[in-house]
Structures are given as C-alpha cells and as structure tokens.
Specification:
Blueprint (H helix, E strand, L loop, with lengths): L7 H17 L4 H41 L1
Helix pairs in contact: 1-2
C-alpha cells in the first residue's frame, strides 16, 4: 500500500514531488501513468483525512454548543 503509514504532510509532499516530475515531461509514458496513479491514490487518502478531520471538528462544535445550552 502506498505510504500506508504516512502523515498528511508526507502525502501532500509526495503529491507535489509527483506533480513536479510530471510537469518536467521527462518520464516515459509508462512511468508517468504509474506516477499519476500513485498521486491519485494519495489524493484520495488525503481527502479521507480531511473528511475525518471535518467530522471531528463538527462533532466537537456540536458538543460545545450543547454544553453552552445546558
């Protein structure tokens, strides 16, 4: 699994590295496709991390609101 234990920052750094490699245009088509696939998977993982963080923030916010009303 690609970067299975990586932090959000590590994943975004790798996505940036891949983007730079692809922008140079010096990789073969096969390697470009592999890099694109890796970046797509990492972007998906980053989106899950962000979604989870948003849910936690929403939960904390709703708990704070309930406590204020009691």
């Amino acid at each position: 699994d690609i970067m299975s234990n990586a932090t959000f920052s590590e994943m975004t750094k790798r996505i940036e590295e891949i983007a730079a490699l692809l922008e140079k245009g010096e990789t073969s088509l096969e390697d470009s496709l592999k890099l694109f696939g890796e970046a797509s998977e990492l972007i998906g993982k980053c989106n899950l991390v962000l979604k989870d963080a948003k849910l936690k923030i929403t939960d904390i916010g709703s708990l704070g609101g309930e406590n204020e009303n009691e």
